[in-house]
Automatic annotation (TrEMBL):
One Gene Ontology MF term: endo-alpha-N-acetylgalactosaminidase activity
Entry keyword set: Carbohydrate metabolism, Glycosidase, Hydrolase
Organism: Artemisia annua
Any one of the GO CC terms: chloroplast
Lineage of origin: Eukaryota, Viridiplantae, Streptophyta, Embryophyta, Tracheophyta
Keyword Lipid metabolism: no
EC number: 3.2.1.26
Entries under PANTHER family matching the protein: ALKALINE_NEUTRAL INVERTASE E, CHLOROPLASTIC, PTHR31916
Family per record: Belongs to the glycosyl hydrolase 100 family.
Protein name as it appears in the record: beta-fructofuranosidase
Signal peptide: none
Group of enzyme by EC: hydrolase
Catalytic activity: Hydrolysis of terminal non-reducing beta-D-fructofuranoside residues in beta-D-fructofuranosides
Length: 863
């Protein structure tokens, strides 16, 4: 038999489809043959057995043959959409010659395992190649997991950006460059896709968390099919987490490709340069934060579930630093990049100083923290972040070796997360974010604490695990992140390779009130005032990684300006944000230059109001719904979009919630609902019409039903209930000013009277505010107008309260003025926007899968 023009083999499957492929012979003396032993190559030197695997991903089959250290793809020429056997139910044995088989327990066993390290490496390569995914007959990545016995695939059959990085490095070092190049360019195309959740879109530069290859019918051609890439930007992910790390890893891999292959043509392509700039635009966007570190929500990186890493986690900062350096190396020096390069260099300097200076701990630093003074108000304070010495955990005192140190997991106002995170520390070494001395000290720590960080299987993702009450409070009782499992102290072999936002919003609200009250619009129409409005809106509407339309902030960014566990998307900020957007829309002049800003503003209003009304609201009906939630739903139409565990419903709330009434919860993030009641956020939701008419009345019903708790002997509770015991220690960091039922932690603040009055008047129920004012009048002047009151029923003047507090006085005065002249409240309230109501109905009837389309779909890409 000789190989001439084409040799075709066919393999018949139970599904009735036939697979064929022309000869893979490199010359006329080599060809593919079929025997009872499987498939092999015939050559002049004799028959050589070859390993053949069946890949059945993305609803179609593929045969690949391993020959001369390379896999050759044999693609199916007769694919039928959705007619092949179910990839979940069909057991897939990737090797036909018996090298790898299923044992009696349903797990893989291998003949290669007896062959030592070399055989183990060969087996790893075989499995890596078995995980390859093909798009239009070219390899584009590797799936997250390829276990034939796992019936709950969820999204593990997709190509994840972060998961492919070690695969990509392995292929580069092996000299197999095509799969990495294809991956880089195809994921770049996905960057330009529209990505939405409830009509809110993150910044264009966001890279997907993952993608899947699907085979779908070809429009206009019956029976024909085509491959498409279907990305997930977090809209379908469990908890709806945004993949902040994807773009950073993409830049790092792009640089590695150029360094390894010497082929710089990929990174110099116009579309690739644009992709780099779009990612950098997201990362370097102006924001409210005073720190050079990237602000993210929980679950935005490798630890993609709720694990208390919200804020400025080390892993993101190390990847951010590495990506900035890589981008600087690859950006072409055209004039258009000058500003970007300057911003990039400035951020690199600030970021490296910040992390090296404030994230580093060793025995010397712990001794320094132990002697910190707190409540320092000055520019040259030593304890810049107001860290309480009691935050040093007991385990660390014993655990820290004399020789060695590490970068802590996170840093925020009044909060240091002292857990050790492997990826962040290792990548701090790789990227030179850590100094040479710090890098050696991190490795010294690994040697000194080998049993803890390596043990029987490297490498601990973090140390130590969250346990007991700490686990319940921080993870929300996540059943997948139980102590010493998964992200919570589990061991991951893959690790071996490696400010004050509220001010601007209040300024806009006050500016509108001035114009409404005086009739003088000349102030808001001044050029400098218009510029000021736009600058604040630019900060608020800047492109970001977040999938949610709510503003992402750190703890202490609003009236509650200390650590109280309100990081993320606190209700107070969202209510003021909504009110400020409406106010700004009323005041912006209609010059042409504001057209884009006005469009962005309207889009955000629609998405924000829907999001808060739909997901922040709780009453007895909603609590019953949450109580019956299913978890770990992976789909676009999941009911439990944020993967909330029913056990998170606190026992106090079950008894406390009245049958008539409800409220907006304090915060919402992936796998986390903060069920505390916050007065300012709820009252301003009424004033701004962020809450519906029904919800507004229900909030006031709650005040009446729970008068003793929310008003008591002095209005008005800032939040209810207080954090106590372990919860207080963990969430506030043992803040001595925020002890239970004091200050921000369940204290009562007379200044909130005026906001209760505005809300009550707007809803036609001024008697509620009038009754609260009567309560305050009994003792407010006698007590010399204190800032706040302590105890559950507000019987004591606050332990550290200042007397003759101006806003306590002003809050009472405004309440009295408004009760005397209710019409005056109109300068502050916003009325329901009918256009927004129409937008809601459209949103509720729209399928999120049908909404998504590629931006610039006619744009051509050369691969």
């Amino acid at each position: 038999m000789a190989c001439t023009t084409e040799v075709v083999f066919k393999v018949r499957y139970s599904a009735g489809t036939s697979m064929s492929h022309p000869s893979l012979c490199p010359n006329k003396s080599n060809f593919l043959v079929v025997s009872k032993h499987g498939l092999g190559y015939r050559s002049d030197k004799g028959y050589k057995s070859t390993q053949v695997k069946t890949l059945k991903h993305k609803n179609y089959k593929k045969i690949s043959a391993f020959h001369n250290d390379r896999f050759s793809s044999l693609s199916c020429k007769c694919r039928q959409s959705d007619t092949v056997a179910d990839p979940v139910n069909e057991k897939r044995v990737p090797f036909l010659d018996g090298d790898l088989s299923l044992n009696g327990n349903g797990a893989y066993s291998s003949k290669l395992q007896s062959g030592g390290i070399d055989s183990l490496e060969e087996e790893a390569w075989d499995l890596l190649r078995a995980s390859m995914v093909y798009y239009c007959d070219t390899p584009v990545g590797t799936i997250a997991a390829n276990d034939p016995n796992d019936s709950s695939i969820l999204n593990y059959d997709q190509v994840f950006i972060r998961d492919f990085i070690p695969s990509g490095i392995a292929f580069l070092l092996k000299g197999e460059y095509d799969i990495v190049r294809n991956f880089i360019l195809h994921t770049l195309q996905l960057q330009s896709w529209e990505k939405t959740m409830d009509c809110h879109s993150p910044g264009q530069g966001l890279m997907p968390a993952s993608f899947k290859v699907r085979t779908v019918p070809l429009d206009g051609d019956d029976g024909a099919t085509e491959d498409i890439l279907d990305p997930d930007f977090g809209e379908a992910a469990i908890g709806r987490v945004a993949p902040v790390d994807s773009g950073l890893w993409w830049i790092i891999l792009l640089r590695a490709y150029g360094k390894c292959t010497g082929d710089l043509s990929v990174q110099e392509r116009v579309d690739v340069q644009t992709g780099i700039k779009m990612i950098l635009k997201l990362c370097l966007a102006d924001g409210f934060d005073m720190f050079p570190t990237l602000l993210v929500t929980d679950g935005s990186c490798m630890i993609d579930r709720r694990m208390g890493i919200h804020g400025h986690p080390l892993e993101i900062q190390a990847l951010f630093y590495s990506a900035l350096l890589s981008a600087r190396d690859m950006l072409t020096r055209e004039e258009a990049s000058a500003d970007l390069t300057t911003a990039l260099n400035n951020r690199l300097v600030a970021l490296s100083f910040h992390v090296r200076e404030y994230y580093w701990v060793d025995m010397r630093k712990l001794n320094e923290i132990y002697r910190y003074k707190t409540e320092e108000y000055s520019y040259d304070a030593v304890n810049k972040f107001n860290i309480y010495p009691d935050q040093i955990p007991p385990w660390l005192v014993q655990w820290m070796p004399n020789k060695g140190g590490y970068m802590i997991g996170n840093l925020q106002p009044a909060h240091m997360d002292f857990r050790f995170f492997s990826l962040g520390n290792l990548w701090s070494i790789v990227s030179s974010l850590a100094t040479d001395h710090q890098s050696h000290a991190i490795l010294d720590l690994y040697e000194a604490k080998w049993a803890d960080l390596v043990g029987d299987m490297p490498l601990k993702i973090c140390y130590p695990a969250l346990e007991g009450q700490e686990w319940k409070i921080i993870t929300g009782s996540d059943p997948k992140n139980t102590p010493w499992s998964y992200h919570n102290g589990g061991s991951w072999p893959t690790l071996l390779w490696q400010t004050i936002i509220i001010s601007g919003l209040w300024w806009i609200i006050l500016l509108r009130a001035y114009g409404k009250c005086t009739g003088d619009l000349s102030v808001q129409e001044r050029v400098d005032v218009q510029t000021g409005i736009k600058m604040i809106l630019k900060l608020c509407l800047a492109d970001g990684f977040d999938m949610f339309p709510t503003l992402l902030v750190t703890d202490g960014s609003c009236m509650i300006d200390r650590r109280m566990g309100i990081h993320g998307h606190p209700l107070e900020i969202q209510a003021l944000f909504y009110s400020a957007l409406l106010s700004a829309r009323d005041m912006l002049t209609r010059e042409e230059a504001s057209a884009d800003l006005t469009t962005a503003l309207n889009n955000r209003l629609v998405a924000l109001s829907f999001h808060v009304r739909e997901y922040y609201w709780v009453d007895m009906r909603k609590l019953n719904e949450i109580y019956r939630y299913k978890t770990e739903e992976y789909s676009y139409d999941a009911v439990n979009k944020f993967n909330i565990y029913p056990d998170q419903i606190p026992p106090w709330l079950v008894q406390w919630m009245p049958n008539k009434g409800g409220y907006m919860i304090g915060n919402l993030q992936p796998a986390h609902m903060d069920f505390r009641f916050f007065s300012l956020g709820n009252l301003w939701s009424i004033v701004s019409s962020l809450a519906t008419d029904h919800q507004s009345h229900a909030i006031l019903d709650l005040y009446e039903a729970k008068w003793a708790d929310l008003v008591g002997d002095m209005p008005l509770k800032i939040c209810y209930p207080a954090l106590e015991g372990q919860e207080w220690k963990i969430i506030t960091g043992s803040d001595p000013k925020n002890t239970p039922w004091s200050y921000h932690n369940g204290g009562s603040w007379p200044t909130l009277l005026w906001q209760l009055t505005v809300a009550s008047i707007k809803m036609g129920r001024p008697e509620i505010a009038a009754n609260a004012v009567k309560v305050a009048e009994r003792r407010l002047a006698r007590d010399k107008w204190p800032e706040y009151y302590d105890t559950k029923s507000a019987r004591f003047i606050g332990k550290q309260a200042r007397l003759f507090q101006t806003w306590s006085i002003a809050g009472y005065v405004v309440a009295k003025q408004l009760l005397a002249n209710p019409e005056a409240a109109k300068i502050l309230v916003n009325i329901e926007d009918t256009e927004l109501l129409n937008a809601f109905s459209c949103m509720l009837s729209t399928n999120p899968k049908r909404k998504r389309s590629r931006k610039g779909i006619n744009q051509s890409f050369i691969i």
